[in-house]
Amino acid sequence: MVQTVRDGQSIRSVALRFGLSRSAVHFWVKRCQGQRLDRCDFSDRPAGPRRAHNRSSEDMERQVLGLRQRLREHSVLGEYGAAAIARALQASGAKSLPAVSTIGRILKRHGQTDARWRVRRPAPPKGWYLPAVAAAQAELDSFDFIEDLKLAGGPLVQVLNAVSLHGHVANSWSAEYFGAREVVPLLIERWRALGLPHYAQFDNDTRFQGAHQFRDAVGRVMRLCLALGVIPVFAPPLEHGFQNLVESFNALWQAKVWRRFRFADLPSLQAHCSAYVQAHRARNAGRGDHAPARARMPRNFRFDLRQPLHGTAIFLRKSDPKGRVNVLGHSLEVHPQWPQRLVRCEVCFDEHRIRCFALRRREPAQQPLLREFEYVHPNKPFQGEL
Q1: Which CATH homologous superfamily contains domain 123-386?
Q2: Which of 232, 241, 246, 351 has its CA 20 to 30 A from that of 152?
Q3: Whose CA is closest to 146, among 134, 125, 160?
């Protein structure tokens, strides 16, 4: 390039020939001005001196590295970090002592550190704990409550929010009180309009799961899911991440609805919730084109709380220090070498089995079967009001 310019061609033509800007050609021609090309430095280096004027001398760096090695081998305290090296240099009477941070940079520059840096791993895919959901072959609806919202001069209200994972289709209902009896018709309303998902995920609220003080208790919402062929999934207690989908929508709802307006009464809140849900669905309508298909809800479906349980329910749990989990009031010894780890427990009412699978965020595709248990649900008559 420089030789071509010296042969008499213009800067513009040389720049076009080599695919460079004219300023770049000017730069290299100027750098080689008055020099033979075989003696020019064509390395791309920043401007300024090759060595910082305030960098520690090579003698000081060798002294620091040698002192670290001696402290590591012979120190009574067993300390050989930057602070220990600084104390040793001060005790030796050395002049112009470097700062502790400078010693640390010297050690890091030469790879003489024992620090273990945190490894940032990519997050697992959405719904990773359910293989079909992670592969976008099954849809999941997630439900959660927002409680104790105070209307101006009115009562406390509760909000039940729902959102689907892949289609991102939302619902929001508000009332003074939600019990299990009030939740069931809202789920039926949503699923009649949208179709049945493969999975419905909840937290461990008794309105979703049923009473916790009794063994084998199965509540209304869980029975509704099983009657419709929807697999209920219950997130692990006190474990972050599994309810992020609906909790994110909860935060969005509070920011865009609850904190923006002052509602005089419950009907005005309900009307605004309905308008917000319609606008939210319209904005995310394109996502539904790529969501897994939903099954149609039976046209003449009638919910019978007394019918026997069929299908599968999933409980996501974290094992205790001895590798045990609690499912439907039963303590299951999953594996002694799987303590404080996540487990997916699949309760198969038709097969009378409970299968426990290992879960790891680091390896979401690897979910080996840990153990199987025989389980026969007593199928006691439903104790609540029909």
Answers
A1: Ribonuclease H-like superfamily/Ribonuclease H (3.30.420.10)
A2: 246
A3: 160
